[in-house]
Automatic annotation (TrEMBL):
Subcellular location, record wording: Endoplasmic reticulum membrane; Endosome membrane; Golgi apparatus membrane; Postsynaptic cell membrane
N-terminal signal peptide: none
MF-aspect GO terms: Wnt-protein binding
Subunit description: Interacts with wg; in the Golgi. Interacts with Vps35, a component of the retromer complex; wls stability is regulated by Vps35.
Protein's name according to its UniProt entry: Protein wntless
Family membership: Belongs to the wntless family.
Superkingdom of this protein's organism: Eukaryota
Organism in which the protein naturally occurs: Asbolus verrucosus (Desert ironclad beetle)
Amino acid sequence: MPGTILENLSGRKLTVLVTVLLLSQLGCFLVGLIAPKPATSQGLLASTCLDTSPNSSDVDHWITPKCDRKIDLEKLQPSDGVKPEQIVFVVEMPLFGLDFSRWQQNLVGILQVDLLYDNALEFIVELTIDARLAYSDKIKHTRTPWKYYAHSKEKRYMDCSLDPTQVKDLEGYPYNCSMVPLFELGSLYHDFYLLNIRLPYNEKLMENVDLRRIQDIYLHMIHMNGGFTRVWMSLKTFFFPIIVGIMVWFWRRVHMLSRTPALLEYMLLALGGTLAFLDLPLEYLTLWFDMPYMLLVSDIRQGIFYATLLSFWLVFAGEHMLIQDHGEKNSIKLYWKHLSTIVIGCLSLLIFDLCERGVQLVNPFYSIWVTPVGTNLALSFIILAGISASMYFLFLCYMIWRVFKNISIKRSVLPSMSQARRLHYEGIIYRFVFLMLATVVCAAITVISFILSQVAEGQNKWDENMELELSSALHTGVYGMWNVYICAMLMLYAPSHKQWPAEPVCSDGDEVEFSRLPTDPSPNEISSLTSFASKASIE
């Protein structure tokens, strides 16, 4: 009875296959090296304008940077009669003479408020922000009028500090205040955006009562690079038909057998399906349709893939523990404790994501990071996610160590076997050990990239320095690794339909075929390695 392709493929063909896979992995990494960086940030200084109709109920009442009357905040005096609600901070995005591209996918706005020294200023300043967002598109030789996009009144908290020992004259000296997240757009469907910010003052409602002397307001924009998006979409377009084709080929070979599919084969099919779902280049639709929910959809696809990949590795190691005491080895029930923790962890991350990105579909100015409690909660989620991922990797390494330990025990009896059987199992063991080591490397890189991505995504909202930037090579390299690894697993663990004699042909060492021995009595196993450990008597 034939086993898997991993067992039966000749050494020369296996070398060619591994070489092609490694070159594909190297190609993904090199593409990332020459690709633009994933994201770009720009700082825009807000224009300070006077609104003569601050109480206008017209939703399309907008103040542009070319306003009739601009205000110099440093020269503004109480005798000028300007009320706080008349002061509008205006930002037009992007920079003058440029326009957004739909290839840039999304936009994050972070607010920086420069405050000057005031002896009554609290070091934690509560900001009440009345923010309105509009959009405009290019038409022939001009652009459309500004149209309403979103409006919200939000609270933000700035942490300000000042070291009086470093400055002799504090008057007019700027505070060092933290930046605060303002908005996040899940799509960049329009060419231009306009932001009107007001800082209303109301003692009864305690709005901006702690705010003192404002020098300037900056908006820091962060958006994806259009060039990187093109590279990313090209990789998805390349890998999607390949993984679908390999899945169809794999499942067709499984169904050609007389036995029912094994648990590992079901898990491989599920893993390939989630990878195909991740590879599906849905982002092309954003070039023609306004899809602000694409960020949420991408997070859900990524979460489903992570859950399936982590579950597969546990089942993969467990199925090769070579312990045959249970009659239900091919049942998913044996792994319910391990898989339930993965499901709970992924659901927790999904709920956390829905709490922010889900609400942002209605209100792009919403952020879970706006309060100290929300910030601490979000940071706790990120820290726990990192700890959980690290613990998972350690547990996976422990399971694989048990597999290797079990193999080494069984391997000690190989010298007492006949030459045919010894060569058969030695070849399988060498290949399987290599595949297990590749799995450990893939798991380690996946866990590290997951932790780095969580930190990089969150730091823009709690750390004004924004020092960590994931390179394009890391993104494309990890993405290519997932595709190469899963394609390899589907191909190597597909059933082999070759029939070989009991004695392998040894005239050329590179051409030895490690097929299942005709005497192996385990029709429900997909690997000769598991039947090797289950034999009651060994020659």
